[in-house]
Each structure stands twice: as structure tokens, then as C-alpha cells.
Amino acid sequence: MQPLPVPCPAHLIPDASRTGAFHQAYRQAMAHSAVFVAIESDGPRWTVKADTLTAGPGHSVDDTVNDAIRSAITHMVENREIGADAYAGPIYFMMHGLSSQERARELAAALHAALYGDLEPLHRAVPLTS
To answer: Are strands 92-98 and 87-88 parallel, antiparallel or unpaired?
Structure first.
């Protein structure tokens, strides 16, 4: 299995729903010193998970990126797109309660790009203007 490209197209985000798939994807990210990202189904709802620890000590996410991710997650919680139990970093990120696999993939790809410093996909996926 190859590491995810950066930016990662939504259709390549791993679905970690089946037994063992989460651990396999996580180990794969660690083996390539890459940011972990995956989606999982939770009944009819979807979850996005990301973790920067797998990328190793040389990978850092600056404050501007963390602030943008936190703002996007807060916005989605306030609009009830995701659950209030979301994790907004700075190392581990999780968004529960997404209504579709397509939206979960879009947000996972945008989060993955952001964690590598490219905020544009996140701004497109979660516009913060009223």
C-alpha cells in the first residue's frame, strides 16, 4: 500500500470501517511517516479521523493551520453538521455524525491537506462566511 498523496483526492481516503482496517491504515501511515487520515461508518453516520503523531517528530503543524482547523470544526458543530464531541487537535482530530460517506471523504481530504499546510481545500469544504 502506497502512502496517500498530498493533497489526497477524496476517493483515496481509506475507509476504516471493516474489522482491522483502522489499525492497518494507522500502521501504514506510521511506516511512511505520514499523517494518518481515514473515515469510518457508524451505522448511517460517518466519522473522520486524523492523527499527526504517525508523521513523526519532524512533522509540525503551525498555529495558523491549527486555528483554521479549529474554526472549521467549531463552525460545523455550531451548524450541527458534526457532533459536539469532535476533537479539534492539535494532534488528533475527529468529526462524528456526518450524514454521508461523500461528505466524510471531502472533509477528510481537506483536513489531510490542511495538516500538510494547504488550507485551500478546507476553506472550500467549510466556508466560514455567513
So the answer is: antiparallel
What are the grid coordinates assigned to 32, written together? 511512511
Question: Is the predicted pLDDT of residue 1 greater than 80, yes or no?
Answer: no
User: Which residue is associated with the grid cell 498530498?
Assistant: 6
Distance CA 80, CA 119 (A): 22
Q: Give backbone dihedrals phi and psi of 93, rounded to 5 degrees, phi first.
A: -135, 135
End-to-end Cα separation, the chain, in angstroms? 41
Angle at 88 between CA 121 and CA 72, to 5 degrees: 40
Which residue from 13, 77, 79, 7 is spatially nearest to 49, judged by alpha carbons? Answer: 13
Give percent of the chain above pLDDT 70. Answer: 98
